[in-house]
What we know:
Layout: E1 10-14, H1 18-28, E2 33-37, H2 40-49, E3 53-59, H3 67-75, H4 80-83, E4 87-91, H5 97-105, E5 110-113, H6 118-142, H7 153-169, E6 174-181, H8 184-191, H9 193-210, E7 216-219, E8 224-230, H10 234-249, E9 252-254, E10 259-261, E11 264-271, H11 279-295, E12 302-304, H12 319-331, H13 342-364
Helix pairs in contact: 2-3, 8-9, 9-10
Amino acid sequence: MSEQSSDLPVVLVVDDSKVIRRAAFKMLGDGYTVLEANDGLDAWQQLQQNNTISVVFTDLSMPNMDGIELLVNIRSSEDEHIVALPVIIMTGHGDTEAAKQEVFDKGATDFITKPFESIDLLSRAKSYAKLSRKVVELEMKTGYDKLTGLYNVSSFKESGGKALSFSLRHKLHITTAYFEIDDFQKTYLRHGKSIAQQILLTVSKRLESSMRSEDIAARIGVAKFAVLLPMTSQAKSLVVIGRIREAINKLVFDTGTEKIRASLSSGFSTLGQDDAIDFNEMMNQADDALLRAVSKTAGDKVVGYIEKEPVEKETVFSDEQLIEAASYAVQGDFYKLDDNILQPLIDKLAPFIDYVSNQTNADKTPG
């Protein structure tokens, strides 16, 4: 996977042929951040984790999940960004007209034939990346998530920024909490769109009903939600988060063949009265904590962000400094020795001490 740049449009190239992926990377690499996936399943996972992707180029015939299945997942996604993505199908000579018609009927945006020329790939990337940006801009203007009615990311950032400024100005606590429905992707793939949509709607409503009047909720990913908790310390945040998770974790959905119990993982970031930070960083901290909560295999899946302790840099002493320290030791001027140089000095003298010890033992050995 290539390094991402916030200044370049992001495209995802999906093909089980490394040669095709590399060719696309070389053609697009100067003007785009190019991500690669070796099959549809890999691509689907990346799409759910990365909302900066603006265009998808995908092959049809791939293992695990083929191009048609990937397209169906994209067009039936509950995420507004994913469902609106331009999907360009890369067809080969072996693909039949019937297969192409099926893909077109399922919502393919365009086609490109392999082997493709640079101009074909670049022209489509440019056109559809621009289209994708316009769609995102329109979504941002609406302010609300179409499926759940909660705030979208843009509105949450705007409201959160204002609330954070108020908290900093008046020296108040504030918390941003992230929640994610556990194993939602597996549920979606196993039971389909209808059940997945039912779970999202029910969870969002239960989330709203469990919040305080001053709290703000948003849907910020496929199965990810954010809640802003003004004037809330870490201890109080744990109480609110616990109440929300308890309400959601009681939900049971009947699919007709089995019953599914919903559950939430949560990560949160709390600012103290004297902290200084912008809201984007606070969201990043909550997201970092959520990733750790999701990865937990046991125990309470709630994690608070903890600032990483600065790693104390080890002092490195030169040979000249060690020789000077050794002279102080020989002369008995111990008070001149820096405490930090004692262990490096011992390490430096260790071979000499071993030599003296061996020589002494040799002298004591009977001839």
